[in-house]
Design a protein that fits this description.
Blueprint: H1 2-10, E1 16-20, E2 25-29, H2 30-51, H3 57-65, H4 70-78, H5 109-115, E3 119-121, E4 129-135, E5 138-145, E6 148-155, H6 161-182, H7 191-204, H8 212-218, H9 226-230, E7 234-239, E8 244-250, E9 254-262, H10 264-278, E10 288-294, E11 299-305, E12 315-321, H11 328-333, H12 339-350, E13 355-359, H13 365-373, E14 381-386, E15 401-406, H14 412-424, E16 432-437, H15 441-452, E17 457-462, H16 466-476, H17 481-484, E18 489-498, E19 501-512, E20 524-531, E21 536-538, H18 540-561
Parallel strand pairs: 6-9, 13-17, 13-18, 14-15, 14-16, 16-17
Antiparallel strand pairs: 1-2, 2-3, 4-5, 5-6, 7-8, 7-12, 8-9, 10-11, 11-12, 18-19, 19-20, 20-21
């Protein structure tokens, strides 16, 4: 009782309080602390009444429960059922609700337990946070942790945690009762369908518009991770195992930890929706899974590694895609490329040149490919061959002619089907082809067959440099050098880590020389290249001039030291 009173007093000068226990650090806000203090006072009153009847066995059960930790004591009172006798006319347990009969918030112990449920946060989190921005009904706070910045979504001031939890709990209870009566088979188990149905029910139930998405995702057990999924500044979410805190890649903060605790149940719910989308199981024989989930609030690709492949437990990586695709102007604004390089690339697209975008995983290859694909004239007929539905975007809303074909290549049978689809493009007369990612020698063979037949395409492939890419095509994928020169443009994307910050930028744009005189590898010439001296993407002559200036400054500094 004393601890609750002390923290309730501290809440007057702080919007939240972190209480450290032996098991975890728990975060409460003022509304929750007030309810806890009210419940504690009611339980204290009941305890005094219980002590007046020491011989009652039922009273003895509650008397013992008053020595439990607070939430364990709530569970004991919630599960208590009194069986009164004739001689129990004055017993406080017989006259109605035992805990705070005058308080509507506390009359239902199950609602009380859900209302005052705290957030579990890392122990390393400092208690003073900085407000960054808002995401739906949440505010994103930045805290200081032992390993750098720590991101934590908290309810906005107009949505006190106690009221928010009570509203969501009431909605979840009502939607379950509604579906028990009205849900008819067959029904969809896909996340998007469930969210659409429950969002419509939440609107009809009178829930505030801003709380509708959160309530819908909370009803399927994804309410805690929901703010991370809809935050436009977060590009990837990682969970290394159940019962751990998620960490993210943030566009402004870089790689940072979060205060979002992912329990085993919450992780299993996310994986179950991924299995539903992939339409296959995750078991001992096939412990890896990749699936795309697209709803009206977010579009993600989930990669799951489970035991025995993952030794420490089930690990999940969530790659987020923009609901609104980034344009070339957006990439100029965030420093991915310069306006001069953008003009050059736009001219190459409109001249129907084949474009190869290479780089490491997560460097922004697909983002650039989609932005370039959006530059094509609306009159062009475009075919899109993707191994994952998240690779390109539907361009119908841009009044473009686009046919999207989904062809995965994870198994031998799927690879044969994928090769057949690529070969069939020759008979469909596309003006431009979007080939999501070249993964295998079969993909390379089909790609160069298209190029040799006169089709033009834009595609992505993993490689560290242009020279390594050419060696891979010639030596590993067995593509003749005479065929490799059918490539027109090579663009290198790079993910640059500076401290905790992560930048994605174009570091090299090269053209393929159309002469092959028996060399082992074809030759290329750089059109743009990243200059450390200029700090931007520059033409080769500008790069050499900037390097000379840097060398002169370094020599002058050395002379000064001497």
């Amino acid at each position: 009782m004393d601890v609750v009173g002390r923290f309730a007093a501290e809440a007057d000068c702080s919007p939240f309080v972190v209480l450290e226990t032996t098991d975890a650090a728990l975060l409460f806000d003022q509304s929750q602390l007030r309810l806890i203090a009210e419940a504690a006072a009611a339980i204290g009153t009941l305890r005094d009444a219980v002590l007046t009847k020491p011989r009652c066995r039922q009273m003895a059960t509650l008397r013992d429960a008053t020595s439990y930790p607070f939430f364990s004591m709530l569970r004991a009172f919630r599960g208590f059922k009194c069986r009164p006798r004739l001689a129990c006319g004055r017993c406080p347990l017989r006259r109605g609700p035992a805990i705070a009969p005058g308080s509507a918030a506390l009359s239902d112990l199950r609602t009380l337990s859900a209302t005052i449920r705290p957030l579990r946060v890392p122990r390393c989190m400092r208690h003073k946070g900085t407000h960054l921005y808002t995401v739906g009904p949440h505010s994103m706070f930045e805290f200081e942790g032992d390993d750098g910045p720590l991101l934590l979504p908290l309810p906005q001031p107009q949505y006190p945690a106690a009221e928010l939890n009570a509203s969501i709990y009431a909605f979840v209870k009502s939607v379950r009762e509604h579906e028990q009566v009205s849900l008819k088979v067959p029904f969809s188990l896909k996340l998007s369908s469930i969210i659409d149905e429950r969002s419509a029910f939440a609107k009809s139930a009178g829930l505030p518009r801003q709380l509708v998405p959160l309530a819908a995702y909370s009803s399927v057990g994804l309410g805690r991770v929901f703010p991370l999924l809809i935050d436009g500044l977060i590009t990837e979410v990682f969970v290394d195992g159940e019962g751990s805190f998620a960490y993210v890649d943030h566009r402004e903060l870089g790689r940072c930890n979060t205060g979002v605790y992912i329990s085993k149940d919450e992780l299993n719910r996310l994986i179950n929706f991924a299995k539903t989308e992939a339409e296959r199981c995750l078991d001992y024989v096939r412990p890896s899974l990749r699936a795309s989930i697209k709803t009206s609030e977010f579009h993600v690709r989930i990669s799951v590694d489970a035991p025995p492949l993952s030794i420490e437990g089930t690990a999940v990586a969530v790659r987020k895609f923009c609901i609104r695709p980034l344009t070339l102007s957006d990439l100029i604004s965030n420093g991915t490329l310069t306006s001069e390089a953008a003009s050059y690339l736009e001219g190459c697209v409109k001249r129907r040149r084949s474009i190869t975008i290479y780089g490491e995983s997560g460097s922004g290859k697909t983002t650039l490919a989609v932005s370039l694909d959006l530059l094509t004239p609306p009159s062009w007929r475009k075919m899109s061959v993707e191994s994952d539905v998240a690779e390109n975007v539907s361009q119908a809303r841009f009044s473009m002619h686009q046919v999207r074909l989904l062809a995965s290549g994870s198994t031998r049978a799927e690879q044969e089907k994928r090769t057949s689809i690529l070969n069939s493009l020759l008979h469909k007369s596309p003006d431009y082809v979007f080939f999501g990612e070249v993964l295998s020698p079969e993909d390379s063979a089909a790609l160069f067959q298209m190029l040799a037949s006169g089709l033009r395409c834009i595609h992505t492939i993993h490689s560290d440099s242009a020279e390594a890419l050419l060696r891979r095509l010639v030596l590993q994928h067995r593509i003749p050098p005479e065929s490799v020169i059918d490539l027109d443009l090579l663009i290198q994307m790079q993910k640059v880590c500076e401290g905790a910050r992560i930048y994605r930028r174009i570091t090299r744009i090269s053209e393929m020389l159309k002469q092959c005189r028996g060399e082992a590898l074809p030759s290329i010439i750089d059109v743009f290249r990243w200059s450390d001296g200029a700090g931007r993407l520059a033409r080769p002559n500008e790069t050499r001039a900037a390097s000379a200036i840097v060398a002169c400054h370094a020599a002058a500094s050395l002379d000064d030291v001497r």
